[in-house]
Amino acid sequence: MFIFIDNYWMFSKISNIYYIKRKNMNRQKTLYQPKISILIPLHNSAKYFNSTIKTILNQSYENLEILFHDDASNDETRKILEDLTIKDSRVKYIFSDTNIGSGYSRNKLIEASTGDFIFFIDDDDEFLSPKIIERCVKYLKPNLEILSTQFKYKFDDLGIKIPINNIVKTLKINPSPMHYYLNTTTFAWGHFFNKKFLYDIDVNFSKVKKYEDIAEMGNIFSKCKNFKRTLIYSIIYHRKTNSLTSFDKNYINKIECINQAYKFNLENIVSNLKNDVSFKILKKTVNSLFMEHLSLISVYYINLKNRNLKKEFKKFIKDIYPSILEIYNGFDVKIKYRRISDLPVFVTKFLYKIPKVKK
């Protein structure tokens, strides 16, 4: 009997010690509570960013900074921000008196932020739940440079909202930063960026007037050495599918801006990776970038609903395609369908059937 009691006492003692150690281990896992800066660039956003604001303010994570940049709006955006700063001490805003563009806006937000990690969200997108930041913080560590999350699309202009999962879920569990970057649609939003890391690599979103994500994200991911991704869905990206009814100078300028952004992106990636990977891997990386480039152009063509406009666009692409190939000179890029995101190119492959440029 005494032996039984002694054994029971000993077992209870060991169990309590194990429980305390386990409890302390779990506590240590969640001990890191970094300050998170949610950054939102705005320009004339008063009509449509109320739902965005609501999902941001409802975040349950406490160590949070919410920072807006008003890029010279001429609507009620500034007034809304002023009211928010009075109601919620976490909210701050900065502004520009003249319109400087979204790239410079992102730079200013990073500079003004005080968090350990920053998280961009656009003015018409939404967090999927109030606990998104709280859940994701569990994966952050002081030396982690990027934590990438999942997102969902919603095509609002179709009359219904259709959530579509980002295809990145099909990736392997622990992809490298470049493997992730080349196999998903990578925007500035949807990632936790270590602010010190961004400073160390001298990040700059203002290299181009438009499509600053394209121009800089390759630079960020190709310099990242400590990367993690999570299957947590963080935000809903509202995708506008408005058909285009004109092919004018502004349209042409957009295509030229796309080309310029990919040129900057390619230069960054090649410069960052040329000493770290074999030419074979670098060539494969560049070809993936080339297909992404064409895919974006193809989407513009698909959005043109008028037959005459499509014909005009086709001629325009035929004229400029040699200059697009020139951007990738030295890598012998080819049209290869390897990802779901290459589908627009497959549908519009006739756009790119022209004689090869003689070297």
Automatic annotation (TrEMBL):
Source species, domain of life: Bacteria
GO molecular function: hexosyltransferase activity
Domain Glycosyltransferase 2-like intervals: 37-193
A Pfam family recorded for this sequence: Glycos_transf_2
Name of the protein: Glycosyltransferase 2-like domain-containing protein
Lineage of the organism: Bacteria, Bacillati, Mycoplasmatota, Mycoplasmoidales, Metamycoplasmataceae
